[in-house]
Design a protein that fits this description.
heterodimer, A: mainly alpha, 11 helices, B: mainly alpha, two-stranded antiparallel ribbon, 25 helices, globular
Amino acid sequence: MISFILIILTSLFFSGIIIRTKSRASGRKGPGLFQPVKDIIRLFKKGAVYSKTSSFIFQAAPSIYYASILMAIMVIPLGEYRGIISFEGDFVFFAYLLGVGKFFMILAALDTGSSFEGMGASREALFSMFAEPAFFILMGSFALLTGHTSFQEIFASLHFGSYISYILGVLATLVLAMITMVENSRMPFDDPKTHLELTMVHEVMILDNSGFDLGLILHATNLKFAMYGALIANLFMGSFPLYLTIPIFLGIQLLFAVTIGLLESFTARFRMNHNAQYILALSSVSLLIFLGVLLMLGQFS
Amino acid sequence: MAIIAAFIFVILSAMALIPWVNVRWKGIVTVAAVCLLALLSSRIAVGALSGNEFEYIFRGSAVTGPIPVRVDALSGFFILIINFTFITGAFFGLQYMKAYREQSTGISLHGISFILAQAGLLGICSLQHSIAFLTAWEIMALSSFILIIFEHNKRETIKTGINFLVQSHICIMLLTLAFIWVAMRMNSYDFRAIAVFSNSGTLLVGVALFLCFFLGFAIKAGFVPFHTWLPYAHPAAPSHVSGVMSGVIIKIGIYGMLRMLLLIKCDYLLVGYIILFISVITGIYGVMLAIVQHNLKRLLAYHSIENIGIIGIGIGLGCIGIGKGNNLLVYLGFAGALLHTLNHSLFKSLLFYGAGNVYQSAHTMDIEKLGGLGKQMPHSSFLFLVASLAICGLPPFNGFVSEFLIYNGLFSGLQGSDKVLLSGIVGALFGLPLIGGLAMLCFTKAYGTLFLGRPRHSLPQPLREAGPGKLIPMYAVLLFIVGIGLFPGIFMDVLARPLALFTRLNGEGNFAPGKLPAGNALSMIGNWAAAFLLLAGLIYWVRKKATANKPVTRNSTWGCGYTGPGEKMQYTASSFIRTYRKLAEPLLLIHKRKKEIKEVFPRDGGQETHPYDKSEAWLIDYPLQLLKGFFNRFTFLQNGNLQFYILYGVVFISLVLIVPFVFDYLLSLVKFLNKL
């Protein structure tokens, strides 16, 4: 429960921090921390324009997408404190729930009969598909390391001790951060600030959404950021008491947001047609983690 | 006995009746016979699933020996799946075949074959006698051949049918070989002899015997690289037949494998690794090829291969579990495999019925030509959507439950295993999510282009939604899809006894009913999946309330300032998968034909892509070509001269007479020399 509330809270200022960082990096002052949330609230109050081509799916998809992300957030624990949903193998449920939302967003994009939105949908489907094995191998390695198969048990019994384990932590952070960028269509893979439909991924999918629906989609993006940030934070929490975990959680989220902002300010995006290979390469980083776990367990001795 | 007699009586009387009644009644008699057969066999099956195994032994003849009919929990489970799919298939087919009423004789044959196919399948599940089993198998193969070639006036269909016939007989040949091997040693055709035989030999003999059976069953089930008949047969058949074929007929191969696993005592660990390896390849390869297909039924056929791969991963895990003595792994692996068998029979038959509705309304299966069907066919569209979600393994539907069991098996298999097993599991952990992701790409493509957007071509006739006669059986299937997704516990109870057969192989006790592994997780999944539906509904309701009195306008789709977007400007299925196709090109075989646009006033240009199966090109076409080349050298023998043919006859007869004689003579010569 506590993680759910914390993630919702974080989602309110997460993209604000990113935008602030990017503004500072480019020498501007930038908008206030809560400007993105204010934008979303403004969208919630607006009417909508629907394409004549679209059907019921287009109108239902954002709600289902939002619901899938809320459910996924419920799975995430906070150190020792389990999420609202917790059972053995809950991270499979987590990944597949996100899949449902994605499925409907892709359908909604195809529902408009546009010449552009299918492009984004196709890319989103392909990229997120390639990111999936990396996540499962990562979780599999942790399951092997700790002997547990639920988020909460894995994170609670993840102890850092030897040198290898620190490397594992760093690598896992890298994998999760990259998955975040893929899932949210951010910088090395997609540039949310691009102005040409042909080079967009996520933005071009939601070209036709407006009003309340667009608000839902935008907030869902923020929620997703906070959700993956929480996963990363969980890597470093272990079984500390609550008065330590909450500051750790907030600190890591802050650090994560700033890092994303800096990353987006100082890197160029990958070439679109090589994106899939880059993403599939994440699986090999996951495999590296797996080998590290085998080393720790002494399978090679 | 009474039940078996009634069973045979129903088949015979339906066969006698169908040719003589008029076209309307042919269908009704078929449906009635299918339902009666289902009723009779389900009684036995339900008994078997609740603990009363059925056994009846026919006296048989001097050649065959006694013929046992045994229905245990595993057979019972498969009998129930077969019956359900055949009943929905028969009801759907009753309406579907109305379009072909003028082909009266064809329909008679079709109806009789449909009944025989069901009877054959039920026979396979219950007969435990090699000769009887092979007979039932042959009945099933021949009747499904007739079912496939219903539209026999199309050349393509006949070609496909022959392909199917040849490949299913290769499968029968392999099975016959294995059975003969056992019968030679044990002098008995009873299946129990197989168990005794494998117990008496070494483990390696068991492995060889199992592999012989496995190859035979793998052809039927469609494991890569034995799958090449499958993508041809499914599109050629009428939709209810494809549904039944993909739903249960190919599953009989899975039944065969499971049955042999129960009987043959072999090196389970080795067998498990082999199955796991083949299955991961099957799953990935099947879905990779499915994505590039633009014929809807062909696409669905490749997905059958993919799902067989997922089932195989479960079976492989279970086998490894038996080999390792890890009962948890046995339970989770086989539970996932069995449940996915059921699940796939549900959503795949629903998808094929949906494809049938589309075909009868639009008269084409080319998804590039269709679009926006959802507006005219809302029910078919909705049903197809749910089935697509289920086949992608997404919650809250049934596909997720079985995939979750397999995932759970994989993660629990990680504990305390050696390097070989670990690498196997990591391979599966890489493969299974990839299969899921690719399936999602494929079904968003299929559903999105078919039912969403606008029509891409003007069709000669207006589209019409299928009648209630077709939709009711489809909704019946849907009920189960949602039911398994939301209440997996009930169905796991049904699986308890078939699973106990496998956990017993380890010599340990069964899991107590209240303490099944993953039981807690499954009930959580059911509840939270329901919660997810409610939450989505709630958010949609809030959205509706919040925007109730806000201005809503309808306008054309955003086209970057261009205000007259036409249907030709829509994204197509080929362009949707273009990025993927470019990536996967080295692994696939895609024939491209391109007509460039040239000159100032260009003529028509265009580009076509025709996906082909690389494994088929290498494993079937190339050897066949070599074989043809080899045999072509002997064409001089077939020169059309009668005299030559008589000469061949004379030469043959004289060889038959002379060779034994010469052999005997040589033998005595050798003996004589030895004496010297």
